[in-house]
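Researcher: Next entry in the queue.
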Amino acid sequence: MKVTFPHMGYMYVCLKALLRYLDIDVVVPPMSSKRTMTLGTQHSPEFACLPLKINMGNFIEAYEQGADTILMAGGVGPCRFGYYAQVQREILQDLGYNMNMIILEPPQKHISELIVKIREVTGERSWLDIIRAIRFAWFKARAVDEIERLVHRIRPREIEPGRADEILKKAIGWIDVAEDKKQLDDAVKKARCSLIRIPVDNTRVPVRIGIVGEIYVMLEPFANQEIEKRLGELGVEVERSIYLSEWINDHLFMGLLRMKGSKAARELAPPYINHFVGGHGQETIGSAVMFAREKYDGVIQVQPFTCMPEIVAESILPVVSRDYGLPTFYLILDEHSGDAGVITRLEAFVDLLQRKKEAAADGAGRKGVEQCADI
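Model: Structure for this entry, 375 residues:
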């Protein structure tokens, strides 16, 4: 048995760690590319979501490398993500690809539901080994998130553009090859020290933008046109509404671990949206409110074309924007999205925010002068 899975950002780092810890053969698909997109689009329904198409391309490329078993997450509620695995399994069978699909549904009552599914892959390995493997994979997810957050702060301030991304790429490699907790801690320390040594200009006051929206498009750089990197190059400090470890905690661990995650965002969503609408639609609204309260300069919502939960959120965001004076930008992506159009629109939005920030600073300066003149 050779197990594969779809790409979603750096999720492959923790999934590979989980499976290899249990001595299971792993086939990591090639990083998502134009070929991946072409293969997936060619064999998927036209109006399927972008994530489904890219995932299909991942599976086909993994099959070409010898994979015969797929680990795929499931879902509940109105979002079509809950049907991805079933649709993909039928397509693969029609193509003549004999691949076993193991679906990790969100546990509804007990974490043991997830572990039972994992046992389909692990066979007779002990429960203790399985728990240790999950724990080690979790540590890797947290490590990746820590380094990404640090890169988000450094990008808009680095004197030599591109240095943070160079180290990020190396750091992911160091985290990936770590075989135990000590090696992982050493990798994180090495990455942190390398990033801190990057020369930065701390006098810069970057525009701060929060990114909200559909989880896959937020986490997968190929799907979102590397939006975080592009914004950093434009002098923007980015913060994401959810990170990989938070999604794992919410989706698979039933939120058992005390983390920021989606719960805080859902609590801030009312009165704009009072109930679950599928996917991360409710969290999108709550996260926008959170960013507004934290005085971010703007919010960007990223979503795949035809994503129902995010369409619902998109219709409500203008009200949040009005109430909090928070500029919002909507980036809808599919297989036809091009670099040039995305970059141009991002540049225009960032320019708007920079002008607004400068005008506010000038106004505060003039007010201070007037107050001093009255003394």
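Model: The chain is about 55% helix and 10% strand.
Researcher: Noted, moving on.
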